[in-house]
Amino acid sequence: MLPNPPLWMTLLAFVCMLGPLVFFHELGHYLVARAFRIPAETFSIGFGREIIGWTDRQGTRWKVAWLPLGGYVKFIGDMNAVSEPGDLDHIPVHLRDRAFQLRPVWQRFLVVLAGPLANFLLAILIFASFIAAVGMPQTNNAVVQVQRGSPAEVAGMLPGDRVLSIADRNTPTFEDVASIVILRPGEKTTATVNRSGQVLRLPLTIGAAMERDRFGQTFRIGRIGILGGQRTYVKVPAFQLLPAATVSTLKVTQGMIDGLWQIISGRRGTEDLGGPIRIAQIAGQQASLGALAFVQLLALFSINLGFINLLPVPMMDGGHLFFYAVEAIRRRPLSARALEWAFRGGFAFVLALMIFLTMNDLGSLGLWDRLQRLIG
């Protein structure tokens, strides 16, 4: 078991991971806004008091703030960092026709959408670089061995079967089989296999196992007890790198959607959810394993950041996109009062979620167990 990295490495890795992700996200907003000639007042990495900054020739203040838990671009016409519409009377007359809130709804939609898409694009570029360097990891979907007494044996799987799908998700490779099964411990589902040309649907109850990583942390994952063949790395032509990386990014996103739905539907507990403390911990651990592991984590967290920001929660990009969609359908924006209450509700939700995730993080570090032992 590997020791956890020192605190300084954890903090440095956290900043080195979150900073570029936030910058890339906000740069997506900024560049699309510039294309529509929407001026930006502030481009901030972090929140709170400014540590360092400068003002460019367009009048945009670029700054780094002391709380590195996000960032924002404040456009002309925004009341605050979350782009809540401000009072038009406070906008200089010569800039009112360029204010963000007065632009056509489709332009505002694209400006907001550009942030999450920039995170997905960053992940695609990282995956494409890995694929170009080492090839596409690929193991065919044939079952080489079925472990005795395993869920797969109970379901009736045999060596030589090709696993076509599990839980109605296609599994063209053994990696797809693993990624689907891991997320579904204890779930009753169906596996579709090809046995000598005959397609069979087998009832399958995925087993649950506790797995410990190299740093001693335990995770509950799904297992069905089959082994695949030898993994190979397939060289991908240059023109197929981006499509292949996009497919990989979509698969990771699908896994996040599956995990979120399992939590919402009650099939998975909330103990796996992590906040800033756990993110910092994971960043430090992966940084201690080397640059490649850290860059891979960067890609995964970039997808995570893009995905979370697309959720329809007021204050987040997804909430803005929802309001713009409603505005496009109604052909008029929501009232200022309705937006104000929506943003208040969104702020309360995000604050409550951050508190909950922080409590979760402290529990994962064993704080509550130690306190209980002290009290007892």
Task: Name the helicity range.
Answer: 40-55%
Number of helices: 10
Structural class per helix/strand content?
alpha+beta
- What is the count of structural domains? 2
Task: Give the H and E element order.
Answer: HEEHEEHEEHEEEEEEHHHHHH
Spatial strand order of the main sheet: 6-5-7-8
N-end to C-end Cα span = 30 Å
Percent range for β-strand residues = 15-25%
Give a count of the beta strands, DSSP E runs of length 2 or more.
Answer: 12
Radius of gyration computed on alpha carbons: 24 Å
Main β-sheet description: 4 strands, antiparallel
Q: Poorly predicted ranges (pLDDT <50, ≥5 residues)?
A: none
- The coarse silhouette is globular
Mean pLDDT: 87
